[in-house]
Amino acid sequence: MNEALPGADETGSYDRLELLLEAVLFAALEPVSMKELQAACASLEGIGRAEIETALERLAESYRERSIELVQSAGGYRFRVRERFSTVVQAAQPERPARLSRALLETLAIIAYRQPVTRAEIEEIRGVAVSTQIMRTLTERGWVHAVGHKEVPGRPALYATTRAFLDDLGLNRLDELPPLDALRELADLPAGVELPDAERARIAPPADDPAQDPDVPAGPDAPPEQPH
């Protein structure tokens, strides 16, 4: 039988707003945007963005000495295990992640740096055909989705990365992507995959990127800034 924590009732010493935010963030499977947090707190009178941000700062501070931390990621907030405890967590969950093929990583890198981009444009850069299985895998993993159609004959689908892609990379915005050279070394991409600076300069966040929402604070994947 579960027992309530002492003082954790509606009128006790615990801050009700912090408890509500903690519950929402703990239950979420992905980062929760400020708009979503505001909607969750709609039942509390006199609670706006400023009060929520202050409560998030206090909540982050309360976890400072714990193995869990509150961070900003992919335009929202989430709890995660601190990096120094990742080895312990992996040991408790020994399932090995599926190995990603070089062709899939090449395709993902091109979409990330050239989005929105058509399948034909990806094939032109890679110099080989992009299989339907690769596009299906990227879509099923939640990293890529269609954001529209290019106004050319046939109206091919335009692909871009998702918020989940940023979250899995621990990024908050697309402009935090590493230089292509660093990504090439990480993914062992061939030197033939080149993206000029002019192309990188035109990168725009995907259609569902919450970082474009003025109600979502921008910033690195780090705990909310503490008040001075």
UniProtKB/TrEMBL annotation:
<dbReference type="InterPro" id="IPR005234">
    <property type="entry name" value="ScpB_csome_segregation"/>
</dbReference>
<keyword id="KW-0159">Chromosome partition</keyword>
<dbReference type="InterPro" id="IPR036390">
    <property type="entry name" value="WH_DNA-bd_sf"/>
</dbReference>
<dbReference type="InterPro" id="IPR036388">
    <property type="entry name" value="WH-like_DNA-bd_sf"/>
</dbReference>
<dbReference type="GO" id="GO:0051301">
    <property type="term" value="P:cell division"/>
</dbReference>
<dbReference type="Pfam" id="PF04079">
    <property type="entry name" value="SMC_ScpB"/>
</dbReference>
<keyword id="KW-0131">Cell cycle</keyword>
<dbReference type="GO" id="GO:0051304">
    <property type="term" value="P:chromosome separation"/>
</dbReference>
<feature type="region of interest" description="Disordered">
    <location>
        <begin position="196"/>
        <end position="228"/>
    </location>
</feature>
<keyword id="KW-0132">Cell division</keyword>
<keyword id="KW-0963">Cytoplasm</keyword>
<protein>
    <submittedName>
        <fullName>Chromosome segregation and condensation protein ScpB</fullName>
    </submittedName>
</protein>
